[in-house]
Amino acid sequence: MKNNILRIFGDRGYDSKYIYNMFGYNAVIPPRKNASTKSRGSYARAKIVRFIKKNSMEQWKENNSYSKRWIVEIYFSGLKRVMTEIIKAKKIEYIIQELALKVVNYNIMRGMTHAY
């Protein structure tokens, strides 16, 4: 599945070596303020930290279209508000089906039939 993901956006709460090792430079997640420029297990993360320290956080955000994260935040906020945050299924395959149906129904309600 990770090979199908072009970019993953997140806030500082998702800053971890695990995420950067999984998605590499496709992870658009600002590092924490005290982030080390040394690799320590994640070369991609260290390179991003060095870029930010050399230039600026604003430059990094602009280069990586970080402002697009808010589009995703708005979408999921609406999805959770309209379709509720409750998942009734217990088995993972049914959880995936339930979530997919909620997304499809939400997109139809919003007139976004091209989005699935």
UniProtKB/TrEMBL annotation:
<dbReference type="InterPro" id="IPR002559">
    <property type="entry name" value="Transposase_11"/>
</dbReference>
<protein>
    <submittedName>
        <fullName>Transposase</fullName>
    </submittedName>
</protein>
<dbReference type="GO" id="GO:0006313">
    <property type="term" value="P:DNA transposition"/>
</dbReference>
<feature type="domain" description="Transposase IS4-like">
    <location>
        <begin position="6"/>
        <end position="102"/>
    </location>
</feature>
<dbReference type="GO" id="GO:0004803">
    <property type="term" value="F:transposase activity"/>
</dbReference>
<dbReference type="GO" id="GO:0003677">
    <property type="term" value="F:DNA binding"/>
</dbReference>
<dbReference type="InterPro" id="IPR053172">
    <property type="entry name" value="Tn903_transposase"/>
</dbReference>
<dbReference type="Pfam" id="PF01609">
    <property type="entry name" value="DDE_Tnp_1"/>
</dbReference>
